[in-house]
Structures are given as C-alpha cells and as structure tokens.
Amino acid sequence: MNSANPDPSSTATRAAAEVVELCRDLIRIESVNFGDGSGPGERRIAEFVAGKLSDVGLDAEIIESEPGRASVVTRIAGADSTRGALLIHGHLDVVPAFAEEWSRPPFAAEVADGCIWGRGAVDMKDMDAMVLSLIRAWRTEGRVPPRDIVLAFVADEEAGGSKGARYLADHRPELFEGCTEAISEVGGFSITVAGKRLYAIETAQKGMAWLRLTAAGRAGHGSMIAEDNAVTALAAAVTRIGGHTFPIRMTKTVRAFLDEISDALGVPLDPDDLDATVSRLGSMSKLIGATLRNTANPTMLQAGYKANVIPTEAHAVVDGRFLPGYEEEFFATIDELIGERVQRELIHHDIALETTFDGALVDAMVAALQAEDPGSRAIPYAMSGGTDAKSFSRLGMRCFGFAPLRLAPELDFASMFHGVDERVPTDALHFGVRVLDRFLATC
Fold first, then answer.
1. Do residues 211 and 325 share a domain?
2. 342/409 same-domain check
3. Pairs from 306-311 (Cβ < 8 Å, separation ≥ 24)
4. Does the predicted model carry a pTM greater than 0.70?
5. Is residue 4 part of a domain?
C-alpha cells in the first residue's frame, strides 16, 4: 500500500486477508459456460457463495432458471432503508479454457509472479471475491451500510444472461425492489497514460447483435459448374462484413474519455484522427478503439457434409456490437453488406447503455479511488462489450462498471478477458478491497 494513503479500516484489513484465497477457491470451481447448455452449470459455485454468505448470517436464496443454472441473491439492510438501494452484481460463469494452451493449469488457481492465474481471474471471480470477502468482514464486525445493498451472483452472463440476470429481472423483480443504482465488472481499473494513473469507470456499453447468416442455393455434384452456390454467396457476404470499417461515431461518454486522455497526454484532440489518440493507449487501444464505431466480426462458419456435394445452405455467425444511439445505422449497414442472397436472424440481441458521469454514487467512487491512490484521476469510459447491466437497467437502475484494480502499466489487462493465461495481481485485489470498503461506507 502507498505509504501516503490513510490507514485502511480494520474491516478492509480483515477482507484483504481472505480475498486471495476466496478468489482461488472460486477459480477452482469449474463453472464453464459453453453457451450451448453442455457445461456443468453454476449450481456448485452458487452453493459455495451462498454458504459464505450464510456463514455471516445472511439469508442467501439460490434461484435456478433451469436445473443447474443457479444464481444467488441476498439483501443487506442499511441504516436508511428509505433511500434507493444499491445492487452489486457479479457473474459466476466463465468461458472455456483449454489447458494445453496455457502456461499454468487454468483451474488450479496457482499463485506465481504476484498473480493468481486461472480462468475467471479477471472475468469476474476477482470482483466476486472482493465483494464476498468485504461483506463477510462487514458482517463480522457488525458494520451497517448507509443504505440497503442487494447482492446478486448470477449465472449465464457469458452467453448473454438469459438464464441468469435476464431471468431474475423478468421472473423475480421483487428481489431488486427499490434498487436505483448498480455496480459490477469492467470498470474502476487503472490505465497509465504519460506517467499518470487514470481509473476508467464504465458509464456506457455497446449493444449486442449476434447474427446467424444463411445463404440458400441449389444442391449439386461438386464436379459440375455451380452458378447458384450457397457457400460462395455466404463467403462473399462474410468477406464484405469482415472487411467493412464502420464510421467513427462520437458518443458523449467516448468524447469525455478522449478529452481526459488528451489532457493527460498534453496534446490537443484531433477530431479527424481519433484513432491516433487511441493508439497511444498501448494494450488498452483495442478495447477503447472499439468504442469509436460499430463493429461486426464473423466468428463461425458451417456448410456442407461431403467434399463432392454442393450444399443447399451455408451458415455463418457474426458478433455485432452497436454504440448507444446507432442501432438502426448498424442494422441498415449489415443488410446492405449481406445483400439479397443472404438472410439474417438474431441469435441474441440486447440494448446499448449510457449514463452520465455525475451524482453522489460517482462522487463516492472517485473519492474512494483518490483516497487509496492520491493524485490519480477517475474518468468515464464506454465498454466495447456488454455485461448483465443490460438486464438490470430494465428495472430502472443506473448501471456502472466499478471493480477497482490498480494495475502495473506493463500488464496487458485487456488481453486477460477471455484470453490465455488470464491472471490478476494479488496486490490489485487488496487495493480493490480497500477502495470498495471506502465506497460502501459512503455510497
């Protein structure tokens, strides 16, 4: 801890002593979500989390959307229950990991080089562990938050959340009665720019449009001339999509972020060359660059069953993401790119989000970060992906990404998400616990 910082509370010290082992325990539970229902589900890890909450006297309800797809929800009474409640949500599932690709076993949660290694270390069992350890410490010491807090550890985020957050929002909205604001993953992490440490708090995220493309044609023998080949038509459409660059569209959040980055760099923002400014962010440039425009990436192809048979259909999957306010433009562009020969259908569709970087909750985030890292600056940013905030926002909540981590400048944090050798620094977990402790005391 920086010697210039005030001493942490006894609660934060207690939580910091537990957070690393809690994170390791969570990683060792293989809650892999393959997206097709074939994984182990979240029941085992949900029972683990519920047990840790029950140990400190909380009534934790386990809710299954279907057998094995389990979420955990509990409410902590605050000093003033007439105020709007705060939701803290985290997902329990992780994307697959294949051991032969990793330097260390992805579910062993080994500690090496100052980091915990394993699938879910940053997405997002680190935040789950920070919240669990801190709430357990608060309960042990008898501390009461200033307002009600609802904790939700949910299933299925990695497949869009239909069996987790969306299920809860649609079928159990009473669990979130009175919640006006929410915090969760992918925000509050540090970015070092020109020697200055900036903490990016997520206030916006792109919408999602996972598309299945289908081209139809005439079946025939592979040795014949084929003027109506479904594979050819599909391949052409996929190539057009993959090669298309959407125009830059400046949202309010992205503009605010780039203004802050420009100030940190000490150079004026060039509106005609925003990509150049983003490129100076190093490993974060891909994550931030994707928030300048809509994107569409082909990710899957399927066609045929035999080398000498021309199939009647060919299929592709495209991961599309659109900025707040630019959904219509996204779909109009996709329809133009695929042409008349190819049809599209939605596999998964969800909204874009954007809120303002102001208010008492934001003030509490900023103050907590600056207390633990004097001289740092908190800034808003837009996330290129999506989180369960999309589901909870439908219940009227302002949603933020705030899972605070102080990171070394050389750590390629963006590549940790869904990447090989995912890992989180142990000192970043300790920092996050201290920040969250200060935040919860004043939120």
1. yes
2. no
3. 307/222, 308/221, 308/222, 308/223, 309/219, 309/220, 309/221, 309/222, 310/217, 310/218, 310/219, 310/220, 310/221, 310/222, 310/224, 310/226, 310/229, 310/230, 310/231, 311/217, 311/219, 311/230, 311/231
4. yes
5. no
